[in-house]
Specification:
Helix 10 runs parallel beside helix 12. The chain is an alpha/beta fold. 36% of the residues lie in helices and 18% in strands. It starts with a helix and ends in a 13-residue tail after the last helix. It has 2 domains: 292 residues, Alkaline Phosphatase, subunit A; 111 residues, Gyrase A, domain 2 (2-Layer Sandwich), CATH 3.30.1360. The strands form 6 sheets. An 8-stranded mixed sheet has the order 5-4-6-1-7-19-2-20, with helices on both faces. The chain is built from 16 helices and 21 strands.
Length: 443
């Protein structure tokens, strides 16, 4: 069966060469959540040792920075990376699903059924290419992935292992665990958890899939906890570089003509203060709390996203409600205590590719994040030391792109790249067309 996939890829490559187009090659796309581009391009000046990433960069192509999507969060960004479209179009608007009464127990956008458009996996699979994915966000039940270990967790108890086994490609996890030991639960976002997933990814790469996506969370985890640029975060980047080296070696051993695409989803900013955006909505009677402090009803509520928040209306067609909320958010934006940098209405949010659910987008100033506790004071010290989710035109939110392989159309510095251009670029290398994408290939 593996031979059939390679015959198909060879046929695609031959047809492209016949018309003078760079030959197709298999692609391994590795996402390093939260990796800032300057931590690689300026690694020596920052005292960060990343020989693998630096070698890929100097031998291939790289972006000075990648301008992401609104909001600059993991799940919306990773869906853009495999569709070439913004959240307004692909439908994944946040990390957490909108849950105003907290009935979904902190449910995330785990399920691929929320993606409204075709993905790279589907497109490659439809072209007869074999696909694989390890821990990539929004892949539970994803069509077009032949070997899938999707990202999901619930409580961190042993039942989570049963959950991932039930949702992975049938038979895949037992086969791999027989020789590799237990797979790592999705709730473990440390670099040590990444190391376990890398071993499973290496085993899957031995099957020679034509398109593989691999997600590593450790850098983001440490930057939230210790802050970007901290000694702990830099040490995690160095450990992750070694994991990338292991993946690259395995990919090249199985597929000598492989193209390696290293991406990240967003940058990072230091953060020190939580801003309670829930309280003014409660005071205005737009959110009603019960005696236990839980939401029992709502008319308008902020959907928090780190450095931004999407204001959602229960009845968007209600003109009177919209007028009330407009007056409230306008007042908040004018009050310096809330540290609001910009306020967008629905039309501007959609123009920027943000969530379709939005009546407004509230963007906070750097150093401030949206708090999670409705009972908290207006401002209090934040739990996290680093945060993202800020507007994508904030330079600190730019993410990473490094690509190395035989089919590149450009080498060296690609300048500043739009994140929506990455998926069609990968499609070009695979020899397929991502029909819904609007951006041209950049590598």
């Amino acid at each position: 069966m593996v031979g059939a996939w390679w015959l198909r890829l060879a046929a695609v490559a031959a047809s492209l060469c016949a018309v003078g187009v760079a030959r197709a090659s298999p692609v391994v796309m590795i996402s390093l959540d939260g990796l800032r581009p300057d931590d690689v391009t300026q690694a020596e000046a920052r005292g960060i040792k990343v020989p693998v990433l630096r070698a890929l960069m100097t031998q291939g192509a790289y972006a000075e920075g990648v301008v992401g999507v609104l909001p600059t969060l993991t799940y919306p960004s990773h869906t853009t990376l495999v569709t070439g479209l913004s959240p307004a179009e692909h439908g994944v608007s946040n990390n957490l699903t909108f849950d105003p009464e907290n009935k979904n127990q902190q449910g995330w956008y785990w399920y691929a059924s929320d993606v409204r458009v075709p993905t790279l996996w589907q497109t490659a699979h439809a072209a007869g290419l074999r696909t694989a994915s390890i821990h990539w966000p929004v892949t539970v039940g994803a069509p077009g992935i032949d070997e899938n270990l999707p990202q999901i967790w619930r409580t961190g108890t042993p039942d989570d292992a049963k959950l991932i086994a039930a949702l992975a490609t049938p038979g895949l996890l037992p086969r791999l665990e027989a020789s590799l030991g237990a797979y790592e639960p999705g709730i473990n976002e440390s670099v040590e958890g990444d190391a376990v997933r890398v071993r499973f990814a290496q085993a899957i790469l031995a099957d020679r899939p034509a398109f593989t996506t691999i997600y590593l969370a450790g850098i983001d985890h440490e930057e939230h906890r210790s802050g970007p640029g901290s000694p702990a975060a830099n040490a995690t980047i160095e450990k992750t570089d070694a994991l990338v080296g292991a993946l690259v070696a395995s990919a090249r051993a199985a597929m000598p003509d492989v193209t390696i695409v290293v991406v990240s989803d967003h940058g990072f900013l230091p953060v020190g203060t939580d801003i309670n955006l829930f309280a003014p909505f409660i005071a205005a009677g737009l959110i009603t709390l019960g005696k236990d402090g839980r939401v029992v009803s709502w008319q308008a509520e902020p959907w928090i996203a780190g450095g931004t928040a999407t204001v959602v209306l229960a009845h968007p067609e209600d003109a009177a409600l919209l007028a009330r909320v407009t007056a409230l958010v306008t007042r908040l934006a004018a009050d310096p205590h809330y540290h609001i940098a910009q306020l967008f209405d629905r039309a501007e949010t959609l123009r920027r590719g943000g969530p379709r659910e939005a009546a407004f987008t509230i963007a906070l100033q750097p150093g401030f994040e949206t708090g999670r506790d409705p009972a908290a004071p207006l401002a209090q010290p934040s739990t996290y030391k680093g945060m993202h989710g800020y507007l994508p035109d904030e330079p600190a939110m730019r993410s990473t792109l490094i690509v190395m392989g035989p089919s590149l159309s450009r080498h060296g510095d690609l300048g500043v790249v739009d994140m929506r251009a990455i998926a069609p670029s990968v499609a070009r290398i695979l020899g397929v067309e991502l029909s819904a994408a609007r951006m041209r290939a950049v590598f």
